Amino acid sequence: MTAAWRVLLLGGTGEALRIARRLGPADVYSLAGLGKVPDDLACAVRVGGFGGSAGLARYLAEQRIGLVIDATHPYAAQISANAVAACGVAQVPCWALRRPGWQPQHDDDWRMVGDWAELVAALAPFERPLFTLGREPLAHLDEIPVHQFWTVRCLDAHEGRPRARILATRGPFSLESERALFADAAFDVVISKNSGGGATQAKLDVARERGLPVLMLRRPMLPPVEREFDDVAALLDAWSSASSQSITE
Q1: 245 burial class (0-12, 13-18, 19+ CB within 10 angstroms)?
Q2: DSSP character for 161?
Q3: By the 8 A CB rule, do 151 and 209 touch?
Q4: What is the third-level CATH fold of 110-217?
Q5: What pTM, to 2 d.p., does this model score?
């Protein structure tokens, strides 16, 4: 896409990659460094942090960025906060793609938790949990209660522990594959972020089918931005319209 602004896209999600494929050579796609780095994009790809909001503000000024698009994960609250703060200092508009969360259905048994301490307390009665929180449980593998065996699904390869199995894999996950995993491992509870989207929703469908409770980590509060979108198409339409208007002015 041809645009009047030089764009910095903060990504790491599937939606961000869809936007990145519309960026041009002057634009930058920024990744934290987890998972596979795409090598087939027309834009530049930057891997790694900026040094907080101050470092990001300097980068925006030095690189003459005209628009920041925050398309990070809904739980990447610190990155989103840094983006808003840096854009305020650099006087650069900040747009955000904020994926809607999942909504519980009639037969769902969701139990909301706010942090790791609440999660551990809520998890105490169970024996075979499936963690789908990313890497956070890896820091607690030495704290597994004697009556529990954990399955942790995340991007990071890890040797595991005697009472833990690490599944280093990336979605999307099909309903059939999730049914097979649940049947084989005999989970009695699922731990999840309310990430939204279709790539990892199947685990919730299978939990519902099997009558399993879900310990759901509440979404963090995210700062307001100049423009917020709930789908890629709407963001791209707004970008195209704004770019066209800027070019003709």
Answers
A1: exposed
A2: B
A3: no
A4: Rossmann fold (3.40.50)
A5: 0.86
Return the pLDDT at 92.
Answer: 96
Where helices occur in 63-163 by DSSP H, the ranges are: 77-90, 116-123
The CATH T-level fold of domain 7-100+220-248 is Rossmann fold (3.40.50)
pLDDT for the residue numbered 2: 41
What SS3 class is residue 187?
coil
Mean pLDDT in consecutive groups of 10 residues from the start of the chain, 249 residues: 74 92 95 77 93 96 96 94 97 95 95 96 98 93 96 86 91 94 97 92 97 96 95 91 61
Q: What is the pLDDT of residue 35?
A: 61
Could you give the CA distance from residue 1 to residue 78 in angstroms, rounded to a whole number? 29
CA–CA separation, 117 vs 49, rounded Å? 28
Q: What CA–CA distances, in Å, run from 126 to 1, 68, 122, 166, 185?
A: 50, 43, 9, 18, 14
Contact 121, 136 (CB under 8 A): no
Angle (CA) 64-66-72 rounded to 5° is: 110
Confidence at residue 160, expressed as pLDDT on a 0 to 100 scale: 73
| Domain boundary assignment for the chain | 7-100+220-248, 110-217
Placement of tokens 């989103």 in the chain: 80
Contact (Cβ atoms closer than 8 angstroms) between residue 23 and residue 87: no
Tell me how far the alpha carbon of residue 90 is from its chain's centroid: 25
